[in-house]
Amino acid sequence: MPHSSAAVQPEEKAMMQDLRKRMTVRQVSDIMGLSEATIVKYSKGNGSVRLSPLNRTQFEVIRDVLAAIRDSKKGLRPTHVMYKANLSHDQLLKYLELLSVNGFIMKDEAGFWHLKRKGRQWLKNYGCLSKALKRRKS
Question: Is the pTM of this model over 0.85?
Fold first, then answer.
C-alpha cells in the first residue's frame, strides 16, 4: 500500500468532492469502496450525500507514522513526523511512545526518529494484508 502523508491522496480528494453532489449513500459507497457507515447523509430532505471526514483507525495512524519515518533518509524529528502523519502534538506523543516502547522505532542522540527492523516488518505485513483484503472485497 503506497504511503500517504495525509489520509487522502489529492486525486481521491477531488473524487470525493465530485461525489458530494447529490448522490445516494449506496452510489457513494459503491464508487468509493467505503462502507455506508462512513457516509453521512444530509437531513435536509434533498437526498444529497456528504462524505464524513474519514477518521483513521489506530492501525492506519501507525502505518502513517511508520511510513513517514521509513521514507526519510536520515530519520525524522518529531515535528516532521507530526506533519507527515497528520497528527496533533498529543497524538504524536502517544504514538511515538507506543511505537518506541514496542520496538518499532528508536530515537537517536540528535532527536531523530528511525525505523527499526520490527517497524519495517510491520509495514510490510500491513501492506500485504491490506492488498489481500482489497482483492477479496472486489
Answer: no
